[in-house]
Each structure stands twice: as structure tokens, then as C-alpha cells.
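Re-run with default settings, no changes from the original entry. Doing this only to confirm the output is reproducible before filing.
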Amino acid sequence: MNVKTKVMYLLEYPIDLPGGAQMSTESLCEGLGNTEFEPIVVCPGLLKKKKEAYPFRIIEYPMGEGRIWNLSMRLWAFFKIIGKEKPQVVHIQMPESLITYGLLHGMGCFRNSRLIFTDRGLFYGYRSHSMALMKAALRRADLMLTTTQFNKSLWEKGSRVRPVRVVANTISSAFLEYEPAKRNGEGFVLGFAGRVCEEKNWPLAVRLVQMVRDAGVECQVEIVMSVFESGDMDVVNETVGGMKRALGEENVRSHLDYTQAQMADFYYNVDVFVMTSQFESFGKAAVEAMSRKCAVISTDVGGLSEVIGKAENLYQAEHPEKAVAYIRKLWEDRETRREEQEYFYRRYKEEYSQERCLADHLKIYRQLV
């Protein structure tokens, strides 16, 4: 019996909490199942799902209240779990986990494991003390990855961390197959989706819907929002309420905390997916929408311009009229709409498929071990 090479993913949030790092980790682990690697996820206790529901191994650890207390608990958990499992590769995709591992490694722990860090944020998005600790931990890393060339350039200009390579993000296996029969051909639907957090500009989403209405576009809205903290439902109610006041209650369908499988079906109902982010390292929702043949219009922030690939599909939050004009054009012209949808689907298949992401990671893991 061949013993598989262990690749351990360290997270500071539960893997079943919606988020880019969690979803990307899950996608990678699913893909590694039929290879020579054994994926192991180490994360705080799951919120809703049972760890047995996943096709890969999950080791949970307890967390408390407060950052210092959580750090101490994470230090002890990582020390015990990594020491017991002895992974050949440790792959970290969250900053607090990197800092924790770096502190342990600096004390002489885990010298036989190879370390990879994927920055799924942006270089300038970290506080100064966090960045100092991250840079210290990365001095001992074998490789750093970013999801865009944009962020790679930021790291190379702003730090001495080397080597840095780009491996584009991907989406979960729920999006693997495109099913044409599910594509909704009725009406004209705008789509919005994302967590309630400071990175997402939900008031701009409401404003855009109001401006689209004022431009004479007859449309409906499908919106999915994910909540985690107290007070998030107030943002949901304000956002959905504002859209319903603009278009009428019957023209806005809102959904809460969708699973990946539900999201994969959600995008089939959307003609144009609209992103209003004010901070975005990559923009995984854009890729999800592309995989379902949605046209995409987005704010020009972070790595989104690289993901979208066309300047005409990017707008500034201060000038949303460009997005409104694009939406109106696709509402009026079905052929242009179809061309845009096909462009984005091809872009997904060529640049951001799970197969490509997995192949890139497998190449890196094999080189390290």
C-alpha cells in the first residue's frame, strides 16, 4: 500500500463559513483526492456541517473570544496537530494562520515541513503590525503564491519575499458542469451576490438598481447575501428593501446563505452579474458567474480588472453610469448580450477552471517534495 504525501491546510475560520479561502481550499482538497497527496484541513469547529460530510479529512480545534486568547489556543492546536500528523507540505491561505505557524517555526518547530503561503488578499490590505509578522514568517517559506499578477507585483515591489508565483483562483466542483437546460431565458435579470462585509459596497448595489430603473430598463433582480455577524441582517434588509422599493416587490428575489450547489444554480437565472466591491483581491464570484454564461460588469478594484479582462466591463464606483449604460445596451440588444455571455464563459474555461488550478498546484507540490 502506497503512503500518500500529506498536504495540510491551516485555517483560522471554519471551512464551512462562506469565504474565498475556504471555498478554494475545499476545491483543492476535492481535486487532490485521486492523486498521490492526502489533503488535511485544520480549522476551528464547523458551524453547520459535519466533518464526515466532506470527502477529505478535517481536524477541528477550539477557539475562544478575543484575538490574543485565540492566538494562544491556535498556537497550542497547531503545535499538537502538526506535531502528530507530520505533513510534508503545509499550505496556508489565511494571514493569522501564517503568523501562528511562523511563531512556532521560529521557535524551531516543524523544520521538516515545506511551507507555501497563498495571499488571497492584497499586499496593501494588511495592518502594519500584521504585515511585519507575515514578512517574518515568510522568510522561512519555500514559496509564496498570489492569485493575480497585480498582487504579485505589489509583493515584489513592497517586500523581499521571494519567490512569488501566480496561481489563479478557481471555484468549487459544484460549478464543473454547465447544464444548458437550466439557463433561464425569461425576462432580463441582474444578479448580485456576496457576504455582508466592509469589502462589499451594498449601498452602491441599491443605487445601481435605482439608476437602471430610471434609465428605462425593465428588469428583475436575483440577490444572494451571506451573513455571519450580529447586525448583518440590518444590511440585508436595507439592501433588499431598497431594491424592492425601486423595482417593486415582485421583481426582486432575495436569498440568504446559499450553499455552493445552490449558488451554482443561482447564476443560471442571471443575465448580467453586477459586482460593486470596493476591495477585492480576486473576485471569485465573477468567475462563478462566468461559468454559468453570465455577462459581468464590475468595479475596477484590486485584481478584478485582471479577472474581467476587458476595460469596457469595468467602472468606477463614483461613476456608476458606465455600468448602467452597459446594462441598458445588453437589455436592448440580445445578440450583444449573447456575445458577452459567450466571451466570459470562454474566459472561465481557459483561465479559471478547476482543472487548471489543480494542475498548477500539483506541479508545485511535486516540485517541493
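The chain is about 45% helix and 20% strand. The radius of gyration is 21 Å.
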